[in-house]
Amino acid sequence: xxxxxxxxxxxxxxxxxxxxxxxxxxxxxxxxxxxxxxxxxxxxxxxxxxxxxxxxxxxxxxxxxxxxxxxxxxxxxxxxxxxxxxxxxxxxxxxxxxxxxxxxxxxxxxxxxxxxxxxxxxxxxxxxxxxxxxxxxxxxxxxxxxxxxxxxxxxxxxxxxxxxxxxxxxxxxxxxxxxxxxxxxxxxxxxxxxxxxxxxxxxxxxxxxxxxxxxxxxxxxxxxxxxxxxxxxxxxxxxxxxxxxxxxxxxxxxxxxxxxxxxxxxxxxxxxxxxxxxxxxxxxxxxxxxxxxxxxxxxxxxxxxxxxxxxxxxxxxxxxxxxxxxxxxxxxxxxxxxxxxxxxxxxx
Length: 348
Known about the structure:
The chain is of the alpha/beta class. It has helices at about 1-35, 50-60, 75-85, 100-110, 150, 160-165, 180-195, 195-205, 220-225, 235-245, 270-285, 290-295, 310, 330-345; strands spanning about 40-45, 65-70, 95-100, 135-150, 170-175, 210-215, 230-235, 250, 260-265, 300-305. The protein is built from 14 helices and ten strands. α8 (about 195-205) packs parallel to α14 (about 330-345). The protein is globular, with a radius of gyration of 26 Å.
Protein backbone atom coordinates (compact mmCIF):
# COMPACT_ATOMS: atom_id res chain seq x y z
CA UNK A 1 0.00 0.00 0.00
CA UNK A 2 2.84 2.33 0.84
CA UNK A 3 4.34 1.68 -2.56
CA UNK A 4 1.14 2.87 -4.30
CA UNK A 5 1.04 5.93 -2.06
CA UNK A 6 4.54 6.92 -3.12
CA UNK A 7 3.62 6.30 -6.77
CA UNK A 8 0.49 8.43 -6.52
CA UNK A 9 2.46 11.19 -4.83
CA UNK A 10 5.05 11.13 -7.62
CA UNK A 11 2.34 11.35 -10.30
CA UNK A 12 0.69 14.22 -8.41
CA UNK A 13 3.98 16.12 -8.27
CA UNK A 14 4.54 15.64 -12.02
CA UNK A 15 1.06 16.92 -12.82
CA UNK A 16 1.58 19.86 -10.47
CA UNK A 17 4.91 20.70 -12.11
CA UNK A 18 3.39 20.49 -15.59
CA UNK A 19 0.52 22.74 -14.53
CA UNK A 20 2.92 25.22 -13.01
CA UNK A 21 4.96 25.22 -16.21
CA UNK A 22 1.86 25.83 -18.32
CA UNK A 23 0.75 28.63 -16.03
CA UNK A 24 4.16 30.26 -16.26
CA UNK A 25 4.19 30.03 -20.07
CA UNK A 26 0.72 31.47 -20.43
CA UNK A 27 1.61 34.24 -18.03
CA UNK A 28 4.78 35.00 -19.96
CA UNK A 29 2.86 35.14 -23.24
CA UNK A 30 0.25 37.39 -21.74
CA UNK A 31 2.97 39.64 -20.39
CA UNK A 32 4.57 39.98 -23.84
CA UNK A 33 1.24 41.01 -25.32
CA UNK A 34 0.83 43.57 -22.54
CA UNK A 35 3.83 45.45 -23.98
CA UNK A 36 2.31 48.11 -26.24
CA UNK A 37 3.34 48.19 -29.89
CA UNK A 38 5.38 51.33 -30.49
CA UNK A 39 4.92 53.08 -33.82
CA UNK A 40 7.06 55.32 -36.00
CA UNK A 41 6.08 57.18 -39.15
CA UNK A 42 8.65 57.29 -41.93
CA UNK A 43 8.49 59.38 -45.10
CA UNK A 44 10.37 57.78 -47.99
CA UNK A 45 11.07 57.99 -51.71
CA UNK A 46 12.00 54.29 -51.87
CA UNK A 47 9.83 51.72 -53.72
CA UNK A 48 6.94 50.37 -51.65
CA UNK A 49 8.14 46.76 -51.94
CA UNK A 50 11.50 47.61 -50.38
CA UNK A 51 10.13 49.49 -47.37
CA UNK A 52 7.40 46.91 -46.76
CA UNK A 53 10.03 44.19 -46.39
CA UNK A 54 12.03 46.27 -43.93
CA UNK A 55 8.99 47.31 -41.91
CA UNK A 56 7.69 43.76 -41.46
CA UNK A 57 11.10 42.43 -40.45
CA UNK A 58 11.77 45.20 -37.93
CA UNK A 59 8.33 44.86 -36.35
CA UNK A 60 8.89 41.14 -35.73
CA UNK A 61 12.30 41.77 -34.19
CA UNK A 62 11.59 44.82 -32.03
CA UNK A 63 7.80 45.19 -31.72
CA UNK A 64 8.10 48.62 -33.29
CA UNK A 65 5.85 49.22 -36.28
CA UNK A 66 7.29 51.58 -38.89
CA UNK A 67 4.52 53.06 -41.01
CA UNK A 68 6.07 54.10 -44.32
CA UNK A 69 4.55 56.88 -46.41
CA UNK A 70 5.90 56.82 -50.01
CA UNK A 71 6.32 60.32 -51.47
CA UNK A 72 8.07 62.15 -54.27
CA UNK A 73 11.13 64.18 -53.34
CA UNK A 74 9.27 67.47 -53.62
CA UNK A 75 6.26 66.31 -51.61
CA UNK A 76 8.48 64.72 -48.96
CA UNK A 77 10.43 67.90 -48.27
CA UNK A 78 7.26 70.00 -48.23
CA UNK A 79 5.51 67.65 -45.77
CA UNK A 80 8.53 67.55 -43.45
CA UNK A 81 8.67 71.37 -43.55
CA UNK A 82 4.99 71.56 -42.66
CA UNK A 83 5.54 69.12 -39.82
CA UNK A 84 8.51 71.06 -38.43
CA UNK A 85 6.60 74.23 -37.58
CA UNK A 86 6.75 75.22 -33.92
CA UNK A 87 2.99 75.69 -33.61
CA UNK A 88 1.95 73.41 -30.69
CA UNK A 89 -1.50 72.94 -32.21
CA UNK A 90 -0.02 71.18 -35.24
CA UNK A 91 0.15 67.42 -34.77
CA UNK A 92 3.60 66.04 -35.57
CA UNK A 93 3.36 63.11 -37.97
CA UNK A 94 6.82 62.17 -39.24
CA UNK A 95 9.68 60.67 -37.20
CA UNK A 96 12.10 59.32 -39.82
CA UNK A 97 13.02 60.09 -43.43
CA UNK A 98 14.59 57.45 -45.67
CA UNK A 99 15.60 58.65 -49.11
CA UNK A 100 18.42 59.28 -51.57
CA UNK A 101 21.27 61.52 -50.49
CA UNK A 102 20.15 64.43 -52.71
CA UNK A 103 16.81 64.61 -50.90
CA UNK A 104 18.45 64.25 -47.50
CA UNK A 105 20.91 67.05 -48.30
CA UNK A 106 18.07 69.41 -49.22
CA UNK A 107 16.16 68.58 -46.04
CA UNK A 108 19.31 69.00 -43.92
CA UNK A 109 20.02 72.41 -45.47
CA UNK A 110 16.54 73.43 -44.33
CA UNK A 111 17.37 72.28 -40.76
CA UNK A 112 14.61 69.68 -40.81
CA UNK A 113 16.59 66.91 -39.08
CA UNK A 114 17.52 66.25 -35.48
CA UNK A 115 21.23 65.25 -35.32
CA UNK A 116 21.89 61.77 -34.01
CA UNK A 117 25.03 59.78 -33.32
CA UNK A 118 25.74 56.22 -32.23
CA UNK A 119 28.62 53.80 -32.10
CA UNK A 120 27.30 52.13 -35.22
CA UNK A 121 26.88 55.16 -37.46
CA UNK A 122 30.21 56.53 -36.25
CA UNK A 123 31.85 53.73 -38.27
CA UNK A 124 30.40 55.01 -41.55
CA UNK A 125 32.84 56.92 -43.77
CA UNK A 126 32.47 60.69 -43.80
CA UNK A 127 31.76 60.61 -47.54
CA UNK A 128 28.59 58.64 -46.82
CA UNK A 129 27.08 60.96 -44.20
CA UNK A 130 26.38 64.55 -43.25
CA UNK A 131 29.19 66.42 -41.54
CA UNK A 132 26.85 67.57 -38.77
CA UNK A 133 25.28 64.14 -38.09
CA UNK A 134 21.93 65.20 -39.53
CA UNK A 135 21.69 62.11 -41.73
CA UNK A 136 23.72 58.99 -42.44
CA UNK A 137 23.97 56.76 -45.51
CA UNK A 138 22.83 53.18 -44.96
CA UNK A 139 23.63 51.57 -48.31
CA UNK A 140 24.70 52.49 -51.85
CA UNK A 141 24.21 51.11 -55.35
CA UNK A 142 27.01 51.78 -57.87
CA UNK A 143 26.84 52.02 -61.65
CA UNK A 144 28.80 49.17 -63.25
CA UNK A 145 29.58 47.64 -66.63
CA UNK A 146 27.35 44.59 -66.98
CA UNK A 147 29.00 42.30 -69.56
CA UNK A 148 27.72 39.23 -71.34
CA UNK A 149 30.12 36.34 -70.57
CA UNK A 150 30.02 34.99 -74.13
CA UNK A 151 31.17 38.38 -75.43
CA UNK A 152 34.06 38.50 -72.96
CA UNK A 153 35.35 35.18 -74.33
CA UNK A 154 35.74 36.73 -77.78
CA UNK A 155 37.84 39.75 -76.85
CA UNK A 156 41.45 40.14 -75.72
CA UNK A 157 41.14 43.32 -73.68
CA UNK A 158 38.18 43.96 -71.41
CA UNK A 159 36.94 47.58 -71.32
CA UNK A 160 37.36 48.60 -67.70
CA UNK A 161 37.33 52.40 -67.92
CA UNK A 162 34.84 54.87 -69.35
CA UNK A 163 37.32 55.86 -72.06
CA UNK A 164 37.99 52.27 -73.12
CA UNK A 165 34.26 51.55 -73.20
CA UNK A 166 33.68 54.53 -75.50
CA UNK A 167 36.45 53.34 -77.84
CA UNK A 168 35.43 49.67 -77.85
CA UNK A 169 33.45 47.91 -80.57
CA UNK A 170 30.94 46.51 -78.07
CA UNK A 171 27.20 46.85 -78.57
CA UNK A 172 26.16 48.95 -75.58
CA UNK A 173 22.99 49.19 -73.52
CA UNK A 174 22.24 52.19 -71.31
CA UNK A 175 19.25 53.95 -69.77
CA UNK A 176 18.27 57.27 -71.31
CA UNK A 177 19.66 60.10 -69.18
CA UNK A 178 16.23 61.77 -69.31
CA UNK A 179 14.36 58.66 -68.16
CA UNK A 180 15.69 57.96 -64.66
CA UNK A 181 17.40 59.85 -61.84
CA UNK A 182 20.09 57.17 -61.51
CA UNK A 183 21.04 57.65 -65.15
CA UNK A 184 21.04 61.46 -65.06
CA UNK A 185 23.05 61.34 -61.82
CA UNK A 186 25.67 59.30 -63.68
CA UNK A 187 26.12 62.13 -66.16
CA UNK A 188 26.27 64.76 -63.41
CA UNK A 189 28.83 62.84 -61.37
CA UNK A 190 30.93 62.22 -64.49
CA UNK A 191 30.89 65.95 -65.21
CA UNK A 192 31.74 66.72 -61.59
CA UNK A 193 34.78 64.41 -61.71
CA UNK A 194 35.95 64.45 -65.36
CA UNK A 195 34.75 67.91 -66.40
CA UNK A 196 32.08 68.55 -69.02
CA UNK A 197 34.41 68.44 -72.06
CA UNK A 198 35.81 64.99 -71.30
CA UNK A 199 32.41 63.65 -70.21
CA UNK A 200 30.74 64.66 -73.46
CA UNK A 201 33.66 63.20 -75.42
CA UNK A 202 33.11 59.86 -73.66
CA UNK A 203 29.33 59.96 -74.17
CA UNK A 204 29.79 60.89 -77.83
CA UNK A 205 31.99 57.81 -78.25
CA UNK A 206 29.43 55.57 -76.54
CA UNK A 207 26.42 56.90 -78.47
CA UNK A 208 27.02 55.20 -81.91
CA UNK A 209 27.30 51.82 -80.18
CA UNK A 210 24.07 52.11 -78.16
CA UNK A 211 21.59 49.50 -79.39
CA UNK A 212 18.68 51.28 -77.74
CA UNK A 213 18.35 53.89 -75.01
CA UNK A 214 16.21 52.16 -72.39
CA UNK A 215 13.45 53.81 -70.38
CA UNK A 216 13.94 51.66 -67.28
CA UNK A 217 17.03 50.73 -65.26
CA UNK A 218 16.40 46.99 -65.57
CA UNK A 219 16.27 46.83 -69.37
CA UNK A 220 20.02 47.27 -70.09
CA UNK A 221 20.73 44.35 -67.73
CA UNK A 222 18.17 42.16 -69.45
CA UNK A 223 19.59 43.11 -72.85
CA UNK A 224 23.10 42.02 -71.81
CA UNK A 225 21.77 38.83 -70.24
CA UNK A 226 19.89 37.90 -73.42
CA UNK A 227 22.87 38.72 -75.67
CA UNK A 228 21.13 41.71 -77.28
CA UNK A 229 24.02 43.90 -76.11
CA UNK A 230 27.62 43.03 -75.25
CA UNK A 231 28.04 45.43 -72.34
CA UNK A 232 25.44 47.49 -70.53
CA UNK A 233 25.86 50.44 -68.20
CA UNK A 234 23.62 49.52 -65.27
CA UNK A 235 23.10 49.63 -61.53
CA UNK A 236 24.79 46.81 -59.66
CA UNK A 237 21.76 45.69 -57.63
CA UNK A 238 19.77 44.94 -60.78
CA UNK A 239 22.75 43.14 -62.32
CA UNK A 240 23.17 40.93 -59.24
CA UNK A 241 19.47 40.10 -59.31
CA UNK A 242 19.81 38.80 -62.88
CA UNK A 243 22.99 36.90 -62.02
CA UNK A 244 21.16 35.18 -59.17
CA UNK A 245 18.48 34.18 -61.69
CA UNK A 246 21.12 32.43 -63.81
CA UNK A 247 21.84 34.96 -66.56
CA UNK A 248 25.41 34.76 -68.04
CA UNK A 249 26.64 38.11 -66.79
CA UNK A 250 29.84 39.45 -65.28
CA UNK A 251 30.26 42.71 -63.38
CA UNK A 252 33.13 45.03 -64.36
CA UNK A 253 33.90 47.89 -61.99
CA UNK A 254 35.13 50.99 -63.87
CA UNK A 255 38.75 51.43 -62.80
CA UNK A 256 38.67 55.23 -63.07
CA UNK A 257 35.62 55.62 -60.87
CA UNK A 258 31.87 55.38 -61.09
CA UNK A 259 28.69 57.04 -59.90
CA UNK A 260 26.46 55.61 -57.22
CA UNK A 261 23.08 56.05 -55.59
CA UNK A 262 23.38 56.58 -51.83
CA UNK A 263 20.36 55.87 -49.64
CA UNK A 264 20.30 57.25 -46.11
CA UNK A 265 18.20 58.04 -43.07
CA UNK A 266 17.49 61.24 -41.16
CA UNK A 267 15.55 61.69 -37.92
CA UNK A 268 12.93 64.38 -37.47
CA UNK A 269 11.45 63.24 -34.14
CA UNK A 270 12.11 65.66 -31.28
CA UNK A 271 10.12 63.81 -28.62
CA UNK A 272 12.62 61.93 -26.43
CA UNK A 273 10.87 58.56 -26.67
CA UNK A 274 10.27 58.77 -30.44
CA UNK A 275 13.78 60.11 -31.01
CA UNK A 276 15.34 57.13 -29.24
CA UNK A 277 13.13 54.67 -31.12
CA UNK A 278 14.03 56.36 -34.41
CA UNK A 279 17.73 56.14 -33.57
CA UNK A 280 17.40 52.42 -32.81
CA UNK A 281 15.69 51.90 -36.16
CA UNK A 282 18.42 53.86 -37.96
CA UNK A 283 21.07 51.67 -36.32
CA UNK A 284 19.16 48.54 -37.34
CA UNK A 285 19.18 49.70 -40.96
CA UNK A 286 22.98 49.70 -40.71
CA UNK A 287 23.06 46.12 -39.41
CA UNK A 288 23.67 42.73 -41.01
CA UNK A 289 20.09 41.78 -40.16
CA UNK A 290 18.69 44.45 -42.48
CA UNK A 291 21.08 43.47 -45.27
CA UNK A 292 20.15 39.78 -44.94
CA UNK A 293 16.46 40.62 -45.19
CA UNK A 294 17.07 42.67 -48.34
CA UNK A 295 19.27 40.06 -50.01
CA UNK A 296 16.84 37.22 -49.27
CA UNK A 297 14.20 39.15 -51.16
CA UNK A 298 16.38 40.07 -54.14
CA UNK A 299 17.75 43.49 -53.18
CA UNK A 300 21.54 43.65 -53.35
CA UNK A 301 23.05 46.86 -52.02
CA UNK A 302 26.45 47.63 -50.49
CA UNK A 303 26.26 48.48 -46.80
CA UNK A 304 27.98 51.68 -45.71
CA UNK A 305 28.81 50.07 -42.36
CA UNK A 306 32.30 48.52 -42.72
CA UNK A 307 31.78 46.46 -39.57
CA UNK A 308 29.05 44.31 -41.11
CA UNK A 309 29.69 40.88 -42.56
CA UNK A 310 27.71 41.96 -45.61
CA UNK A 311 30.30 44.67 -46.32
CA UNK A 312 33.36 42.55 -45.54
CA UNK A 313 32.32 39.71 -47.87
CA UNK A 314 31.08 41.86 -50.75
CA UNK A 315 33.31 41.69 -53.82
CA UNK A 316 32.74 45.28 -54.87
CA UNK A 317 33.38 47.03 -51.59
CA UNK A 318 36.72 48.45 -52.76
CA UNK A 319 35.51 49.89 -56.06
CA UNK A 320 36.50 53.46 -56.93
CA UNK A 321 33.64 55.91 -56.40
CA UNK A 322 33.27 59.36 -57.86
CA UNK A 323 33.40 62.33 -55.53
CA UNK A 324 29.74 63.25 -55.09
CA UNK A 325 30.34 66.67 -53.52
CA UNK A 326 29.24 68.72 -56.55
CA UNK A 327 25.94 70.49 -56.11
CA UNK A 328 24.57 71.45 -59.50
CA UNK A 329 21.44 73.58 -59.55
CA UNK A 330 18.35 72.39 -61.41
CA UNK A 331 19.12 74.92 -64.11
CA UNK A 332 22.68 73.61 -64.52
CA UNK A 333 21.45 70.00 -64.65
CA UNK A 334 18.88 70.88 -67.29
CA UNK A 335 21.51 72.74 -69.31
CA UNK A 336 23.80 69.69 -69.36
CA UNK A 337 20.92 67.38 -70.30
CA UNK A 338 19.79 69.70 -73.09
CA UNK A 339 23.33 69.83 -74.38
CA UNK A 340 23.52 66.03 -74.45
CA UNK A 341 20.21 65.79 -76.31
CA UNK A 342 21.20 68.36 -78.96
CA UNK A 343 24.89 67.53 -79.41
CA UNK A 344 24.82 63.73 -78.99
CA UNK A 345 21.43 62.01 -78.66
CA UNK A 346 19.81 63.62 -81.71
CA UNK A 347 22.86 65.08 -83.43
CA UNK A 348 22.37 63.11 -86.67
